[in-house]
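re: the backbone from monday

yeah here it is again, tokenized this time
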């Protein structure tokens, strides 16, 4: 079994070497293959807002999120790892002589690198949200006093921590060395994060450049950050318990297989070596995979979208 697995791994590596495949070339080829065709129907659906997110759009959003965290190079490596792991997952199912596990292993192994990337992005977003409330509150109070966003950012820049520090530093650099257009620089700054409240706060600042009386709208926007943080704090324990219960159930389902081997060898052989038994393991694997995806989807922290 181990020898067959290593043989499959060596075969995949050999194919990459023969065709001179690199992580960048594999990623570019995959994105090119997944990119939707620019048809009239597709453009019409996009304009109506009726088009569903495609695999290509999800990958591009993931790439942009990694770029914001400063880990853009991890994207191509992870895509390549996903492709390799998909082949290895398929090879494992074939070696187990269970065709029903083939799609389950392919999807599970291929998704593993993206789960790692999602954890990186989640940690970055948590760090960003923790710093967001303090930073926006300080800059807003300074702006209410001076009515000058540039001086307000300069006044508080030394107190701003990463990752927001680079966002405001680039704003100052753009206004001082590139273009004096404050509104354009603010709009560019809003694109540096995916936080809905931050984008709303920046757009309110843009409106304040034309009408200073609108500055009173800034504090209520910042106050919403406190509401989101409070809700996430209250939900974190509930979501953690739900995750633990789910993982315990998965452990019980998977743990039944070696348990059958110890308690009743005939049942174990029926489950592993007969077609109905293989179908049952395939169905169980598919259910675990689908429920894991749903668990990840419904246990995310509360987030305000723009």
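seq for it, each position gets an aa:
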């Amino acid at each position: 079994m181990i020898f067959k697995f290593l043989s499959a791994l060596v075969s995949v590596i050999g194919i990459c070497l023969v065709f001179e495949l690199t992580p960048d070339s594999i990623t570019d080829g995959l994105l090119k293959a997944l990119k939707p065709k620019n048809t009239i129907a597709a453009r019409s659906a996009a304009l109506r807002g009726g088009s569903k997110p495609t695999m290509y759009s999800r990958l591009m959003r993931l790439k942009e999120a990694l770029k914001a965290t400063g880990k853009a190079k991890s994207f191509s490596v992870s895509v390549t790892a996903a492709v390799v792991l998909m082949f290895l997952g398929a090879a494992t199912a074939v070696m187990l002589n269970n065709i029903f596990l083939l799609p389950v292993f392919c999807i599970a192994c291929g998704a593993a690198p993206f789960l790692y990337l999602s954890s990186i992005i989640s940690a970055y977003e948590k760090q960003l949200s923790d710093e967001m409330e303090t930073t926006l509150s300080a800059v807003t109070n300074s702006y209410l006093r001076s009515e000058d966003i540039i001086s307000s950012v300069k006044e508080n820049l030394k107190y701003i921590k990463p990752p927001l520090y680079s966002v405001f530093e680039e704003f100052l650099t753009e206004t001082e060395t590139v273009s004096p257009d404050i509104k354009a620089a603010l709009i560019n700054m809003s694109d540096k994060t995916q936080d809905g409240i931050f984008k709303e706060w920046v757009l309110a600042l843009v409106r304040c450049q034309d009408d200073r009386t609108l500055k009173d709208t800034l504090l209520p926007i910042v106050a919403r950050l406190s509401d989101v943080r409070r809700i996430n704090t209250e939900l974190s324990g509930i979501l953690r318990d739900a995750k633990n219960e789910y993982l315990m159930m998965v452990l019980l389902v998977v743990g039944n297989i070696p348990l059958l081997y110890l308690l009743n060898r005939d049942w174990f052989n029926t489950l592993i070596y007969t077609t109905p038994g293989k179908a049952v393991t395939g169905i169980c694997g598919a259910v675990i995979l689908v429920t894991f995806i749903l668990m990840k989807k419904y246990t995310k922290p509360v987030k305000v979208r723009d």
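The longest helix spans residues 218-263. The radius of gyration is 25 Å.
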